[in-house]
Structure formats: C-alpha cells, structure tokens
Amino acid sequence: MKRAVGWFVLAIGGFYLSYVLLLYVSQEQRIYQAQPGLAVAAPALVFDRPGARVRVSYEAHDGADAVVYFGGNAEDTSRVLPDLRAAFPGRSIYVMHYRGYQGSTGKPSEAALVSDAFALFDDVATKARNVRVIGRSLGTGIAVQVAAARPIEALVLITPYEDFKRVVQDMNPLVPVGLLLRDRYESAKYAPLVKAPVILIAGAIDQLIPVVHAEDLAQRFPQGHAVLHVAASRGHNDVQLDPQFWNWVATAASDIKAQGHPASGTP
Predict the structure, then answer these.
(1) How far is the C-alpha of 177 from the C-alpha of 203, rounded, in Å?
(2) Structural domain of 170
(3) What CATH number is attached to the domain comprising 98?
(4) Local structure of 108: helix, strand or coil
(5) How many domains does the chain have?
(6) So where does this one cross the membrane (predicted)?
(7) What is the pLDDT of residues 211-254, one digit of tens each?
(8) N or C: which terminus of the chain has fewer CB atoms within 10 Å of its end residue's CB?
(9) pLDDT digit string (tens) for 50-82?
(10) Which of these, 212, 205, 216, lies nearest to 238 by C-alpha position?
(11) Cβ proximity of 213 and 160 under 8 Å
C-alpha cells in the first residue's frame, strides 16, 4: 500500500513538473497568438528595427492630431481602423502590427514590442502635435510604458491589467508564475509616471481580465488623472459593443480631467 501511494505521489509530481515545464517553454506561443492576414487593406509604414521589419497600417490626415493604437495578443489591428477613423475624424491613425503579426517579421517579446512602440510614437510625434495613445488588452501594457516616458494628449486603456503576472497567476494558481514568466508588463509600475489624462474601459463580466484589474490600476495613476468606465453586461472580447464605448474612447482630454478619478467606474 505504501509503495502504491509512493508511486502515485511520484506520478502526480511528475505530471506537475511536466506541466510547469510545458508552460515555461511555450509561454511565448501562449502570449503572442499572431494572426497572419490583414482583414482591412490600408497603406503601411515599415520600420527597420533590430531583428525585425515592423509594419504599421495607417491613414494620414493633414490635421495636427494623431492616434496610435496597440492591440491585443490575438488581434488583427487592421480591423479597428474603420472604427478609429469614425471616432477620430481628421486625425491620422496608426495601428502597429507586432513582430510576427500581419506582415511584421521577427519574434515578439516585451522588450522588443515596447522598443518598437517608442520608435513608432517618436516618428508620429514629428508629424503630429497631439497624440492619443490607445492600448487594448496586451497592448495596454505597452501603451502605459509609452505614456510614462513621452508627452501625450491622452491615454486610453481598454480591458487593462494592473500586472500581467497577476493575470497569468490567476489562470494558473498552483504554478510559481513569478519564477517562470519572462514578459511581465508591469503597468502598475509605470502608471504613477503618466502625466496625461487617462481613460480606462473594462467589461463588467470580463472573465479573462476581471474588472478589478482596471479598478486597481486606476488607483495607480496620479490623483485626478484617471477615469474608469465599466461596460455593463460586456466581457473581454465584446466590450466595444457597449453603446457608449467609442464616446468613452474619444473623450476630449479636458473632459477627462474634469471627471477626475472615480475608482468605482461608470456603470
């Protein structure tokens, strides 16, 4: 009997270690789920970056304002171009395709994507006076880092997380995620450095990144800089279907400051 129990314990331990090893070696494939094609044809800029050529779909306008968008981990960001065009008439729109996504080459990682994001922003800033930075899901961790280090008009975070490690830990409660995860996207670390007004948008029934992440992250920005909107009856992938969604995204920077810092959000 003792021998059987011992073998059972060894088997469970072996399975656990195998599972942890699988998570470790496959983490990039799990985090970065590249979509190969472009759903919406658009002109493109191509940035020659160390180890990659990064594609950026764009629509240029003569106005002095622009929008830069960083998408989710499995998003074809070309799909959001028509909506951004409608929400921001007269602005130039730039959506980045991460390394390995939609015509961009190279291997994605936090360091690489953030570096590419700075390159894109700095290029756009030479042509535009006011730049609004928008991030969705994975892209919120990139957008926060750009906003913390560059002067922007406003920051919009859609279904954001406070700390990417926390998201992964919630999905794998028995795994020492802190020891395994290479790309951490520590948004809470950079939030206090953001000087621009901030809009956070979360889905009330988001199961992937629960609304508590947005609530906690909102508290990390300087007092009076952030406002949180919660879309009732919406989850992670359909938050944009809320009737107020694009009004929230396009809120004037002066109105964001006027709304202040409601931690409980807007139902």
Answers:
(1) 25
(2) 32-259
(3) 3.40.50.1820
(4) coil
(5) 1
(6) 6-25
(7) 999 999 999 999 999 999 999 999 999 999 999 999 999 999 88
(8) N
(9) 999 999 999 999 888 999 999 999 999 999 999
(10) 205
(11) yes
